[in-house]
Amino acid sequence: MLTLVLLAVGGGLAWRRFGPVTVEVVSPTWGPAVRAVYATGTVEPTVMLPIAPRNAGRLVEIKVDEGAPVREGQELARLEDADLQRSVDELAARTRFAQTQLDRAQTLLDRGLGTVLERDRARSDWQAAAAAESRARTLRGFMTLTAPAAGQILRRDGEIGQLIPANQPIFYFSQQAPLRIAAEVDEEDILLVQPGQAVLIRAPALPDRIIEGRVASITPKGDPVSRSFRVRIDPTGDTRLRIGMTVEVNIIVTERADALLVPTTAVVDGAVWQVRDGRLLRQPVQTGIGGEARVEILAGLTEQDAIVRQPPADLQEGRRARTVPASATEPAAKTP
What is the DSSP string of 68-89? Predict the structure, then answer.
């Protein structure tokens, strides 16, 4: 009895070690292979300008609000300018008096009763008064903020009655131009990126939509802190994107429409495990473009081969294998 038990145990161990192993197999498939550089970015206007007063003043009138379209030269807001207006009135009066004196000196000179020196002195006084008046009018004009071009008001920071310091923006203005995306690309990938490359864009706000674009420019200087370079991308078509949205971009570096693909899990240390004539065979392969789900095979396999989808670590070459097709619940092939 003991002998029979030992034989049974030994047979079971031998079967587990040398008997056929059950493996899940798949065949290589043909499909697109894409090598892409992934990055995140933000939607921004092509031209965005802060609009701020050159002099401090109290905000007394706001004529536009956020989101409003504006035309070039349109008044946006006005700051208190009563003191400047009084200066303009005073200097205008001095200019008029200087003009009267100049006219009088010229009349006396024409009649032979005055001198050229008196006429020239009167002209100099008039020119100085006119210049001072012009400067005062310009300073007063700075208290009225206007649109530098046709565009849209993106943001307003200021309320009526608020004291606005000099050079503090009240409005942020966007010129009427297409939106663009500023993406931060890791320094390890930046040499793969070139202007003109196609880009696939996905925004969390538009989860069911893929937006196409092109690389427009690459900043020549990287950020040493984040170790990234800024890449600007121009979306194409009606994107429905809005300024400030975050997006994910895939910059297409290489694309092949007809590549031989296998699951990424099937390739281990540069080789796959095949099942040929009921036995396992380790087959070295040359890989190309790789992705999370699929990897391209450049050499070593054909579409008729049966390979182990996820080989265990203890497979042995030459061992018998029992194959089962890949699970019907396996995720669909994704573009590498």
Answer: -EE-TT-EEEEE--HHHHHHHH
Closest CA to 41 of 228, 225, 196: 228
| Number of structural domains in the chain | 4
What type of residue sits at position 238?
A: D
Q: Are residues 270 and 128 in the same domain?
A: no
Please report, in angstroms and rounded to a whole number, the separation of the first and last CA atoms in the chain.
Answer: 59
CA distance 118 to 124: 10
- 8-state DSSP, 169: -
HSE-up of 10 (CA within 13 Å, CB side)?
6
The CATH number of whichever domain residue 163 belongs to comes to 2.40.50.100
pLDDT, one tens digit per residue, over 290-303 is 877 888 888 888 88
Q: Is residue 335 part of a domain?
A: no
- Could you tell me if residue 8 is inside a domain? no
Helix (H) or strand (E) holding 336: none
pTM: 0.60
Q: Mean pLDDT, the chain, as a whole number?
A: 85
pLDDT tens for 5-48 read 444 444 444 445 556 888 888 888 888 888 889 999 999 888 88
Complete DSSP assignment for 29-82? EEEEEEEEEEEEEEEEESSEEEE--SS-EEEEEE---TT-EE-TT-EEEEE--H
For residue 176, the 8-state DSSP code is S
What is the identity of the amino acid at 101?
A: Q
The per-residue pLDDT for range 275-285, each reduced to its tens digit, is: 888 888 888 98
What number is the average pLDDT over the span 134-146? 91
Both 208 and 280 in one domain: the answer is no
